[in-house]
Amino acid sequence: MRLNYARGNYLLMSHVIAIANQKGGVGKTTSSINISAELALIGRRVLLVDLDPQGSATSGLGVGRNEEGQDIYDVFFGRLRLADTIRSTSVEGLQIVPSSRDLIGVEIELGQCEGREVILRNELVALEELYDYVLIDCPPSSGLLTLNAMGAAGKVLIPLQAEYYALEGLSALLDTIETVRETFNPNLDILGVFITMFDVRTNLSAQVEEEARKYFGSLMFREKVPRSVRLSESPSHGLPICRYDPGSAGAKAYHFLSLEIDSRCFQKGGMRHKVANA
């Protein structure tokens, strides 16, 4: 798979996916960790980029942050290449760019610097031969870090929690995607939407799923991620659920969801969707 950037006409050929939702607590980072791990387990070469200053994806894979002056924060200022920040994980085939606490100040420090939204995109060019997937865990905001993720990505993957007002919270994200398309990445697509924190015991979960499927149609994935104590526990052990409890309902859900994602990505290069059609 290749990243192909043509001057004046940005073309993304490999599977660079921003996992985003501007609302916190929706299972975004849990999904980033476990989808990355599952894709690696089926034989894909995967890089997870942790762009959230909280660094939960980094610690959730049992990886420490890089030393100050050797982390992704310095990449944004041209003092370091992204390739120099990559670390291995306990999952074969999965590597990670750890987060940095200093990322919280990137937007202010870069100010209105020209090209600041495409810094990550430019860095990924050097890694074009190394990975089948680059997954980017975005912070729960529409700031510069999320814009960099969407500027580098060809696709956005959206976790949707099975909770009240979940759909209403997506309007800001869809607006951000449309703005990115209109300004610096016209080829950005929505790969799909999947349900998280699904509870079969409640009517609310079923109602949220029904409304989501009406609204997003073919963008919805079949597999739903259940609300699970084991999923909540696994990050504290620095392990994806496939390593912490491979027989659990959460592990099975992320396995089948990742197979769906892989199938959708490799069918004619993925699906093209307009936000207006969602």
Would you give an account of this structure?
The chain is of the alpha/beta class and 278 residues long. The protein has a single domain, classed as 3-Layer(aba) Sandwich (Rossmann fold). It has helices at 28-41, 56-60, 72-75, 106-110, 119-124, 144-152, 171-183, 203-216, 229-233, 241-244, 249-266, and strands at residues 4-6, 9-11, 15-19, 46-50, 87-88, 94-97, 133-137, 155-161, 189-196.
Would you summarize the structure shown here?
The chain has 278 residues and is an alpha/beta fold. It has helices at residues 28-41, 56-60, 72-75, 106-110, 119-124, 144-152, 171-183, 203-216, 229-233, 241-244, 249-266; strands spanning 4-6, 9-11, 15-19, 46-50, 87-88, 94-97, 133-137, 155-161, 189-196.
**Average pLDDT, all residues:** 91
Shape: globular
| Main beta sheet | 7 strands, mixed
- As a whole number of angstroms, the C-alpha radius of gyration is 17 Å
Could you state the CATH homologous superfamily?
Answer: P-loop containing nucleotide triphosphate hydrolases
Structural class by secondary-structure content: alpha/beta
Helical content band: 25-40%
Number of strands: 9
Report, as a whole number of angstroms, the end-to-end distance. Answer: 28 Å
SS summary, helix count = 11
CATH class: Alpha Beta
User: Percent of residues in beta strands?
Assistant: 15-25%
Q: Domain count, please report it.
A: 1
Q: What's the architecture, going by CATH?
A: 3-Layer(aba) Sandwich
Q: Describe the strand arrangement of the main beta sheet, using strand numbers.
A: 5-6-4-7-3-8-9
Fill in the CATH topology: Rossmann fold
